[in-house]
Amino acid sequence: MAVQHLLAAFEGWRAQGKPLVLATIVETLGSTYSKAGTQMLIEPGGDFEGLVSGGCLEGDLVEHARGVLESRQPKQVTYDMRDEEADQVWGLGLGCNGAVRIFLQPLDPATGYEPFMSMTGLMAGARRGAYALVIASASAAVPAAAWMVADSAGTMSGSEANAFLREACAAAATAASVYKIRHDGAELEIFAAPVPVIPKVLLLGAGPDVIPLARMGEMLGWRVTVADHRPAYVERLRQMVAADVRETAADRLADTLDLDVFDACVVMSHHYLTDLEYLRSLAQSRIAYIGMLGPEKRRTRLFDDLGAAQQLLQGRAYGPVGLDIGADDADSIALSIAAQIQAVLKGAAGGHLC
Q1: CA 295, CA 115: separation in Å to the nearest integer?
Q2: Whole-number pLDDT of residue 87
Q3: Cα–Cα distance for residue pair 163/90, rounded to 1 Å
Q4: Domain ranges in the chain?
């Protein structure tokens, strides 16, 4: 799910005042297309944004969503295809051999589209946080779909009186989980997960090879910023990509941009002294991924010329940049870089799945 695309669809439907259904994967078992925390939005006409499967389950979920909109009550739906014979009987033919549990809840304009509205505040602002949903309840005081959203600074919205929701949000800062508790003698089931954020990626250099990487980032739902010191390069690039393109001298990079808001950066100006100046600024930042275009020998020389500052880049500098996928042109090199950024940001190894 590209968070940027989900937000765009939500804003369009919200502007039309449409009631919506939020579908959230709360649990998976075995091999599944998507994991817990994946979300999709469904509008009354059956249009949707986001995928919880490769397209196999979405049609059925649209039908369930219609019932949720009519009743205004949340519900859970489970698809268990671990039995291959059952998979064929139900006609889904998923072939995933996994099970997925999905929580559907109405988002009403009259109640401000909560809790998704509070989530969007974190998503759009790239602020870290978590949310907690009561997905099953035997308590009249705490019904299913009771919720809380909390940011990393401790600001909360929702059912703030329920300490267990606050605790679930705190525990879900990095991973999604389902909790079963007893509250006033009643059993509750709570799903909590980090609020997904839009990755912010900085590309330093506005040469022709930046174009496919900037476009790929846009396709992935990233917020891409490009910076370069050459006015002609900047003006040309502004006509070719949707990214935020800035003109700045390399030694003024940190004055022009707040580097700490970015999740990843690729240094690709093809000008040695410019790249060296970029790295001096990046060493002082908190950016988790810093990719460097060029061969290993060039990286070693850059590090040597950085002196003591190179120590600040250890563990987050990647050069030669990208995964080894046999890339041999601008488009495939952009793919290899985007794949490495995705892997690093998600804490994945970036190897084969089998």
Answers
A1: 48
A2: 52
A3: 41
A4: 1-113, 132-197, 200-346
